[in-house]
Amino acid sequence: MARETQSEGRAEGRTHDRIDDRTNGRAGNSPLDASSGALDERYSRQILFRGIGAEGQRKLAAARVAIVGCGATGSALAGLLARAGIGTLRIIDRDYVEPSNLQRQSLFDEQDAAESLPKAIAAARKIAGFNSGIAIEPKVEDLVPANIAALLDGMSLILDGTDNFETRYLINDYAVAHSLPWIYSAAVGSYAVTLNVVPGETACLACLFPDSPRGMVETCETSGILNSAVNLVASITATETLKFLVGSVPQLRSTLLSFDVWTNEHAEISAAKPRPGCRACGERDFIHLAGEGRPHITMCGRNSVQIHERQRPIDFAEMDRRLRPHGVVRHNDFILKFWHDPYEMTLFPDGRAIIKGTTDTAMARSLYARYVGS
Ligand SMILES: [Zn+2]
């Protein structure tokens, strides 16, 4: 079995910190990966491809890539890169699987949704079923300024599977500050967009969009989404990841590319050079990393609110007993769900909560204070 399952049954995050020190991709627990011959066989069609070769495959095995957000795009990226043999994938996601995810989030199934499994955990289990020879590090956490250094430490590349600009600007600040490359990817409706950011060489996200683009406030919640738009952007991003990791620099894309799979409209804006005076990569003013004005309660999709509590470790068994008189409660090792009509509260072990059934942040805060603590 792959590594994630060794720590299965305990709470998220900290128990999954086991880092694999393999550097040549030859280690592995499954008989399939016991020898380099088996490895060569597994990746033979990719090694045959001239751009990769045996040397490139070894570089992929030694690589450490973080995927921030494991919804539709993150799922597709994780699936492609795990099959391609990226040695270590760290999958960071704050959410759990729901039935409405299954139309496009290719790593999950009906059982994951029935169990409300955290996406990072479900993704790690799914990947273990088809590639037990790589290390998967699932992190059930919301990437915020306070934990970004710990969550992205030791990574050679960061991939964007998020659904919001707040997190993307945070990744951009961190990547520019630490000279780490990252790839912006987004899909909404039938529209996909992607950009490679190599600090010191290309434009960064803030070069192109100094502020959160107002015209792009539409989300999957309001505009729907085609799974094919997701797979298009994930395919391009996964390929750029391979090029970057094997050192195929001349082939890397250097534009902001957008493509609408429904209307066939597409556009490219040059992003080969930084914009002089850019707040992030020019002036090195990392306001998102500093977390200025960051709210503790935010809207989180349609009709739900997230409470960013992180310092309130919760004993699920105890909380289950306490909430039982007030509604229906269910918990597993990773999350606790509490239904108190018309609200549904999902609690994570560190105290973070997602409250469905309201867009009123004051109401959400008061429910949390009443049932969890103030
Ligand atoms: Zn910039």
> Briefly, what CATH class of the largest domain?
Alpha Beta
Name the ligand types: zinc ion
Rounded mean pLDDT score: 86
Low-confidence runs of at least 5 consecutive residues = 1-34
Query: What can be said about the biggest beta sheet?
Result: 8 strands, mixed
**What percentage of residues falls in helices of 4 or more residues?**
25-40%
Q: Determine the strand fraction and express it as a percent band.
A: 15-25%
Q: How would the global form be characterised?
A: globular
Q: Judging by the overall fold, what is the CATH architecture of the largest domain?
A: 3-Layer(aba) Sandwich
- What string gives the helices and strands in order? HHHEHEHHEHEHEEHHHEEHEEHEEEEH
In short:
The chain is an alpha/beta fold. The chain has helices at residues 36-42, 44-48, 53-62, 72-84, 110-114, 119-130, 148-152, 165-177, 205-208, 220-223, 227-246, 287-290, 316-323, 361-371, and strands at 64-68, 88-93, 135-140, 157-160, 182-188, 191-197, 255-260, 266-270, 297-299, 304-307, 328-331, 336-340, 343-347, 353-356.
